[in-house]
Amino acid sequence: MSTSSTRLPEGRYGRSSDQRADRTLKVVGAVLSVLLLGLVGWFGYHYVAENEISGEVISFDTSQNAVKVHLEVHKDAGVAGYCTVRSQAEDGAEVGRADFRFDADATRIDEVVTLRTTSPGTTAQLVGCHTD
C-alpha cells in the first residue's frame, strides 16, 4: 500500500495564493514601518529643534504656605516665555500652581522662585515651559 501525497508537484501550478498573500503582507508591513519611523523622526525633530525654552527643577524647599523652587531655564537669546510649576500635598492633591515669566536676554537663567500654596506642599514639579 502506498500513501498518496496531498502536495502539488513543485513548479507545476505556479505560486500558491498563500505565498502571494505573504509577499503582500511583507510589502505592506515594510511600507507602514517606514512611515511610522518617518513620523517618529519628524515629531522628535520638532520637539528638539522647535523647543526654544526648557527648564529644570534643581532643588526645592517647602514651608507651611509656600515652596521655594530653584529653577534653571535654558532659552534662545531674545525669546520670552514662561514656565509652569506646581506643588502637591502628601495625598497627591495639587496645592499650588503658578507661571513664572523669563524675559531676560540671557540664554541661561538660574533663579529661585516662590510658589504660594494653600496647604503644605511636599513636591515641586515643572509642568512645562512655553514661549509667548
From TrEMBL:
Its recorded name reads DUF4307 domain-containing protein
Which InterPro entries does the record match to this protein? Answer: DUF4307
So which domain of life are we looking at? Bacteria
Q: Where are the transmembrane segments?
A: 25-45
Keywords, in A-Z order: Membrane, Transmembrane, Transmembrane helix
